[in-house]
Amino acid sequence: MRWLVLYTALLxxxxxxxxxxxxxxxxxxxxxxxxxxxDPTPVPATTFTDPEGGTHSLADYKGKVVLLNFWATWCAPCxxxxxxxxxxxxxxxxxxxxxxxxxxxxxxxxxxxKFLDEENITHLPVLLDPRQALxxxxxxxxxxVTLLIDREGNEIARLxxxxxxxxxxxxxxxxxxxxx
Length: 180
Known about the structure:
- This protein is an alpha/beta fold and 180 residues long.
- The protein has helices spanning 2-14, 24-29, 76-92, 109-118, 133-137, 168-178; strands at 35-42, 48-49, 55-56, 65-71, 97-104, 127-129, 145-149, 154-160.
- Strand 5, helix 4 and strand 6 (127-129) form a beta-alpha-beta unit.
- Keywords: Cytochrome c-type biogenesis, Redox-active center, Signal.
- This is TlpA family protein disulfide reductase.
């Protein structure tokens, strides 16, 4: 009996592929019906900015799981889902995970700041893609679009349209994606 327990423990411990598996069907059934798993695709090195003129890229987040959201102040579904993205970042953001919300297209920084202040969005930095260079390179055709990026910098899922990112289903998805 001891050998059976030892063998089972070694087998489970040695099979790292079992850890961190995402249950895509559960995510779909639990309310993220528009979430589509994608073939792992490296994200581009295209830069985006902040209101102070700082330059950023998705490589800045390598080693973290990222929920990348493209949005705009004029987009009603974007405005509706932004509080849930902020709540997800507040609860789960940290060393292993980040919500990166980028205002794509014509979104003057004062308008972005005004919207975030009005909606009490306090956990997301102001990031901008004014010429939609990153959005275009990532094949974003409408807004909002949210991409799940693994620790190696590969897009692994995409959701077109709005979603409740503070739901238990979304949190379970992020826990699965960040599992060792």
